[in-house]
Amino acid sequence: MEHLFGPVPSRRLGRSIGINNVTPKHCTYACIYCQLGRAVHVETDRREFYRPELLIGEAQQRIRDVYSRGETIDYLTIVPDGEPTLDLHLEELICGLQETGIPVAVITNGSLLGSPDVRRALLGAQWVSIKVDAASTAVWKKIDRPHKLLDHTRLLRGAELFAAEYTAREGTFLATETMLIGDMNTSEAELSSIARFVGSLQPDAAYLSIPTRPPAESFAIPAGEAALARAYHVFSEHTSRVEHLTGYEGDEFSATGVAIDDLMSITAVHPMRKEAVEALLQRDGSSFDVVQGLLEAQALLCTEYDGHTYYVRKFRDRQMGR
Ligand code: SF4
User: Fold this and answer.
1) pLDDT tens per residue, range 135-160
2) Residue 7's Cα: distance from chain center in Å?
3) Pocket of ligand 1, candidates 27, 44, 179: which has the most ligand atoms within 8 Å of its Cβ, to mutate?
4) 4-245 maps to which CATH number?
5) pTM higher than the cut 0.90
6) What is the whole-number distance in angstroms between the Cα of residue 5 and the centre of ligand 1?
7) Whole-number Å distance between alpha carbons of 278 and 291
8) How many CB atoms lie under 10 A from the CB of residue 126?
């Protein structure tokens, strides 16, 4: 069983070595959009999956190999094909990985944040991402299909407690990730509630994503571009940095002089208002014909929201990076 992978490039984490601290398909949820398929073992009891010294030793070896090739590593990321906080030794693992001098990231669904032990373990990481797919219990149950012993109110309260303590620490980065599923969590009311809750956590970044790999259930359809633009708008009212997470790995958003490249890279991350597009075209010395061409090629879509015209990159058929 391979416990490590990478380094792989990630827009959020740069070059990251991934660490599987939980055997595949063990999770507290059985999300309808899970790319692991339906056969997920849903459980909530924290336990040992691997000895932490085994994973730490393998990480040290991998780091030596990567450095010997003259390559760099930005993060060690605990991101198994399941839920990392099910690992009883998470705190010890994070502590051991810290000794390599490389920052540690954890991508969790947040379901066990009601547990003080889980919160304490995650405090040791430099970068933590928490999933927030729903604010209402009914939508949470529909999308994330949690283990029956999980309590939504306790989870939300745990997330607040964790975020308050974590964001007060120097050198930490808190992210949230919300998967937008068509006709599930994209109503005006649900989006507003999720955005308000995410805002209360004061994350450094709130990421919005859509399923781009085959989901566990065929009815887990990605939210459309108009819903993504709406979500971006609503989230931006509560959180200063909101981004689409759609697999685009570039991060150069200033005007490069090539209007098509600029428009495609920026709209992959967030919708652009018409005025912003016009300003960018001016800086690039281009005309609106470029936008017209992208619209005709269906590489870009135009949508109206709240009295503004937005341009969004077409998302289908692109891969989503974690
Ligand atoms: S939390 Fe992640 S691993 Fe668990 S079921 Fe949902 S998508 Fe799959």
Assistant:
1) 999 999 999 999 999 999 999 999 99
2) 18
3) 27
4) 3.20.20.70
5) no
6) 19
7) 10
8) 17
